[in-house]
Amino acid sequence: MHECHGVFLHVGSFFTLGFLSDLLAAGGTVMSANTDVVKGRLKEAAGALTGNDDLRAEGKTDQAVGRAKQVAEKAVDKVAKAIRKVRK
User: Fold this and answer.
1) Region class of 5: left (phi > 0), else alpha (psi between -120 and 50), else beta
2) What number of other Cβ atoms are within 10 A of residue 74's Cβ?
3) CA distance 16 to 10
4) Where are the beta strands (DSSP E) in 1-88?
5) Is the pLDDT of residue 28 over 90?
């Protein structure tokens, strides 16, 4: 298990890696991890400026989702690289 700012991930999960790689290989679109982090920062800042604790919390959640996606993307890339290396 890896901890990513309070979000626990099982990066070695074949289901998760298979799902993501199948989705990406099929041309599916997944909101960029960086986009989620930026969107979360904006929501958190807007919530802080307006005193809206729910919006602020939603922003923190979006940032955590973005960071989790970054970890998953790196894992998928490493697995794909290892597969390509073995196939050579």
Assistant:
1) left
2) 12
3) 8
4) 2-4, 7-9
5) no
In DSSP terms, 9 is beta-bridged to 2
AA identity, residue 74: K
Q: In whole angstroms, what is the distance from residue 80 CA to residue 22 CA?
A: 12
Looking at residue 9, its pLDDT comes to: 40
Q: Alpha-carbon distance 9 to 15, whole Å?
A: 12
Of the candidates 79, 71, 73, the residue with the CA atom closest to the CA atom of residue 23: 73
Hey, where are the domains in the chain?
2-87
Residue 36 has pLDDT above 50, yes or no: yes
Distance (Å, whole) CA 77 – CA 56: 32
Q: Residues near 4 by Cβ (< 8 Å), separated by ≥ 6?
A: 64, 67, 68, 71
